[in-house]
Amino acid sequence: MSLKLDGKKLSLEIEEKLKNYISVNKTIAKRKPGLAVIRIGEDPASGVYVKNKEKACSRVGIKSYIFHLKDTVEQNKVEQLINKLNLDKDIDGMLLQLPIPKKFDEQRLISYINPEKDVDGLNEQNIGKLVKNEPAMRSCTPAGIINLLRSQNITIEGKNIVVIGRSLLVGKPLSLMLLNLNGTVTMTHSKTTNLKKICQEADILIAAAGKPNLIDSSFVKDGAVIIDVGIHRLTSSDKSKPRLCGDVLLGDVIPKVFAYTPVPGGVGPMTVTMLLVNTIFSWQKQFGLSSNLNDLLP
Ligand code: NAP
Questions:
Q1: Which of 167, 192, 219, 228 has most ligand 1 atoms within 8 Å of CB, for mutation?
Q2: Does ligand 1 have an atom closer than 6 angstroms to the CB of 99?
Q3: Residue 236 banded pLDDT, cuts 50, 70, 90
Q4: For labelling alongside 44, which of 23, 53, 118, 158 has CA 20 to 30 A away?
Q5: Is 120 annotated as catalytic?
Q6: Domains of the chain
Q7: Given ligand 1 and candidates 52, 170, 194, which is best to mutate, with the most ligand atoms within 8 Å of its CB?
Q8: CA-nearest residue, atom 2 of ligand 1
Q9: Is 208 in the pocket of ligand 1 (CB under 6 A)?
Q10: pTM over 0.85
Q11: What is the pLDDT of residues 32-51, one digit of tens each?
Q12: Do the Cβ atoms of 34 and 91 come closer than 8 Å?
């Protein structure tokens, strides 16, 4: 039987450790860790993600500060807010909830975030350190995937790993992290020819294309590990609750694989948990607290 890589269960276990860590150390730091989230506009999915982050912070004892700006706000006002939060001593981590409306220069805003507070690991300084395999804030979704693999002792070193997608948010940082861990990584994208053939060689196949049910069992080698990053809300005509699916046709693939991540309950919860880890990591550094969180960081 295939192994379910249960991100929900693992994230709750990690959260328990984080909660204890905060409760032991907050008397030394004299305040809780603080996370600022900037949301611009009314994208409904972003609303759900921000709420989930707020709830996760409150579960472990992080104070969250939510800044919900109208999409009429000027770019320079957002830059001013980021600069203010960069200087705010109560804020350890900060993120810009993506996507933001097209009129904003997203990369410029991210580059304004102090790299020490860049808990999404998207600032060029942190990406540069990742390229050089130096310690730095790591992107949450890739870091969550690596912790999920580690939790089941799935070896990365020496494995053929195919990543579908090359976005700055997922595909690129994930490929670099896996490379740094001595995987043999192939990064694919929408212009890749013969995607299926490349995927069939993968010991670990990671789908982050953002295309519902792109991957069926014909893409997958027997005994492979399959990680599904995609999240899609499929609405039905009867207005019932939307059903979630990923990039992988899971029912078709599960009988063939050694291990798989479910959607929901796989990569998603780990992403949020790594955001908490990064925030606490920044808090820990600021106050010189003991560093037994290191084993959670790829
Ligand atoms: P994105 O920015 O749209 O990037 C998608 C990538 O997939 C691009 O590199 C694109 O190639 C490639 N691609 C698209 N269609 C393809 C195809 N048919 N074959 C091969 N490659 C293809 O998306 P993203 O931000 O990386 O997110 C990807 C998915 O993960 C989305 O469903 C998103 O909702 C989900 N996600 C989940 C989490 C989580 O916590 N679970 C976190 C982040 C994202 P080009 O570069 O050539 O366009």
A1: 167
A2: no
A3: confident
A4: 118
A5: yes
A6: 30-116 (3.40.50.10860), 140-268 (3.40.50.720)
A7: 170
A8: 167
A9: yes
A10: yes
A11: 999 999 999 999 989 999 99
A12: yes
